[in-house]
Amino acid sequence: MNLLLVVLLLPLAGFLVALALPRSSENASRTWALTLSLVTFVASLGLLFYFDRGAAGDQFTVDLLWIASPEIHFHIAADGVSLWLVLLTTFLTPICVLISWNFIRNRAKEFYAFLLLLEFGLAGVFIAQDLFLFYVFWEISLVPMYFLIGIWGHERRIYAAVKFFLYTMAGSVLMLAAIIYLYNRTQTFGYAEILDQLASGRLTFTSSEQMLLFLAFFIAFAIKVPLFPLHTWLPDAHVEAPSAGSVMLASVMLKMGTFGILHYCLPLFPSAARQCAPWIAVLAIIGIIYGALVAMVQPNMKKLVAYSSVSHLGFVVLGIFSFTQLGMDGAVYQMLNHGVSTGALFLLVGLLYERRHSLEIVDYGGVATTAPWLATAFLITTLASIGLPVLNNFVGEFLVLQGAALANFTWAIYAAIGVILSACYMLWMYQRVFYGEASGEVRSHVFDLKLREWAAIVPLIVMMFWMGVYSKSFLDPVGKTNARLLDQTHVNVPFRVQLDRPEAGHAR
Amino acid sequence: MPVSFTFNSADLIRFLPETILTVAATLMMVLDPLVHKRSSSLFGNMSLVALVTAAAAAVYAFTAQAGAAFGGMLSIDGFATFFRVLVMVVGILTVLPSFRFLDRQDAETSEYHALLLFSIVGQSIMVSANDLIVIFIGLEISSIASYILAGYFRDDKRANEAALKYFLLGSFATAFFLYGIALIYGATGSTNLSTVHGALGGPNAPKEVFVGLSAALMFVGLGFKVSASPFQIWAPDVYQGAPTPISAFLSAGPKAAAFAVFLRIFMTAFEPIGPGWEPLIWGSALLSMTIGNFAALLQSNVKRLLAYSSIAHAGYVLVALTARRDSGVAAAMFYLAAYALMNIGAFAVVSHLSGKGEQYQSVEDFSGLAQKQPLTAAMLTIFLLSLIGVPLTGGFFGKFYIFKAALESHLVWLTVLGLLNSAVAAYYYLRILVMMYMRDPSEATARAEPLSPGLRAALILPAAGTLFLGIFPNWVLDFAGRSSTLLK
Fold this sequence. Notes:
The complex is a heterodimer. By secondary structure, chain A is mainly alpha-helical. Chain A is 74% helix and 3% strand. In chain A, strands 1-2 form a two-stranded antiparallel ribbon. Chain A is globular. Chain B has one domain (10-483). Chain B has helices spanning 9-14, 16-31, 41-65, 78-104, 110-128, 132-150, 157-188, 193-201, 208-225, 234-241, 244-269, 274-296, 302-322, 326-353, 369-372, 374-388, 394-408, 412-438, 443-447, 453-471, 474-483, and strands spanning 67-69, 74-76. A two-stranded antiparallel sheet of chain B has the order 1-2.
């Protein structure tokens, strides 16, 4: 039995069982969801164990014929990048169950069912090796998130849910057109097969054809990232979603976009991507600075974190479009870092909300005196998010900036402003929420972490340190995969600064 | 053309489905005065039995005696069988929710079911006809029965308006169609589709102006029947006024049959002048999708909303026709099957919730359905996701195959605009989802009665079918693909 298939199908099976559980017993649903997501996580650790770190290619391949004509395969496999993203998904799902434990009282059965379905869809997006299958997972992940926001969100949840759905849908139909177009040219949906045809010269595009196809894919991904100026759905969705929804949305779902750009846009349409790179880099830098500036003036904590995501994801896009090994490695690492640290931020903000029932910064102050451990956890997460050395984001941001500097030094200078700004808005928020005089409301409501909450936050904090101190354990497979990818785009920069990596050009 | 009218047993087997339905419908009318009013489920059960038997007979006729019948007037090929079974399935899915519905409105049942069966007979003839005159006869049988059905509640003003509108506009459309037949007969001397095809493609092709005019006139007639723009005006009013199960029926059965005729005429008889009519269908397809989707955005009545959505979906099928290739025909067949299931399922929920006198029809009336009746809500969710075109539903694969065929024919702009249209459409389907899952129960959902067995079947069967088409589309698509090469 293929382990990757098990990891993918467990949540689906969990979803189906969860549907059959009795409505009345919320305990059955949440216990089931926790058990199943933990089992899935353990299974996914097996992936890590059996993953061949020396190889750049796809592993754990399952290739079954799904539909005979047009030929569509159920073809999944993991490479050095998707491996980590799958692990991120399986790692965060049990944490999401834990933080929803008491918070979700209403219609708990459906909540946990949708959460498991979401895990299935997200994991599938990262490991699909057939363009059609990829699109299927891409759309499947949309539906549970729509319900999570729309049913269990805050006041403006319906507006946010519909906006989220429509934005994504509008982008993805264009991608569907491009996928079908590719099929008509190549007679296959198999991603590896299409790349083969490209490499061997059997498939060639005119430059305008390539540009349009690139844009069709890129816009779908850019909406998901979200890249400035397509980001307007994100603050709404994040703010209105329940904590678990925000965590999954920020930590995993946004990565669908950056993963898509990295995994599909670049190898399929290298010259269009290169042509657009300066424009996209500028948009990314605008996103970095704009996101940070808007975050600074937010009175609402969730909105602040949401805009900080726009800023952080700008780094990822910048890293990808630097077309350097360092920048891309940094981008992938930043995807994981953002997943961990922003996930933790949303989680902690959610805990504050559960206690004080407010997301407004002015309603807080002096929380550090009533909930010192919560404050400590928040501080570590804040510091991680602003890129303090020893913590995870530092490594990613450093690599991205270095890669960007290699590509264009000016990009790096402007992007670095974002790093400084992130320290401003995060620390300022921290100061206003946790220091100062505690009001009566805060004193009576905001208590410290409970055991279940410890269990949710500690793994995240451990990861922040681990990823900050020993990045090699993560970056090795990523580097291999990115080297192969850079090779596919035929744009290796000659003066790559390598630490201890074999020459990427020969990896293939 | 001289036709010999010697009947043989093979022809009778080929015509067996229609015979069964006609006998059953006639029997109902005879039995009506003899049966006590209270045992009203008799007629419903009779039509169920008749429809199932007829569907089986259609399959049997194809496997045992495929070929032309009655001197080439009927063509019992895979294409015909596909649509015959489809219209009969539509019939079954219309009858199932009708039991409780008619009961609730204290309506007569015998005429209702008899007319329904007659209408299906007409459609069954239409889809298997290979001769314009036979198509016309089928069209008339089907239409006249549906005019009456639309106004079945004769005390209801809206139903009267619906029936009258449908009748007047429908008669006009049929007249156009007939005029088209007359012209093509004048030009080629035949009404047989294969002969016309031969004449138009042959060396002595008649003057293009006659042929073109004839094609245009037939397009008007058929465009009306499938509610394609710019002949869609009647659809919202008729769907709103007609009894809900009949709206469901009209949006699926007659439409599928009319599309079958559309495909057969334009892909066989008028195939030689394809480049001429392609721009016409192109425009109509785009217009239907755009008008349908954008008008649906503004609707608050669910039946009107579904009516506009059905106009938009007619547009998608026309995209498949614009592709002018066998894969387009197969895609249209698949799409019509998927569409019939999901649309009729959605209407079944509407008829379930509408209450006595069909008072609950607005989108708001769906509020909180998920809390009151989770199963009903889940089924409707499947239908709506399929109408949006989310993967793993039949609606998605339908759209996928259609736009794939369109891109094969290099209709890039039509594809892009069509797909963007489907993103717009997501909004109004989502509104119903929002109501069901994200709002508190309304008066309508609080008062909704538990699902009757018939209704339960009428929801679960199409939902299962929709998912089946979405996960294993090949079963149907293979058959459609094999049947898409029409006799020319």
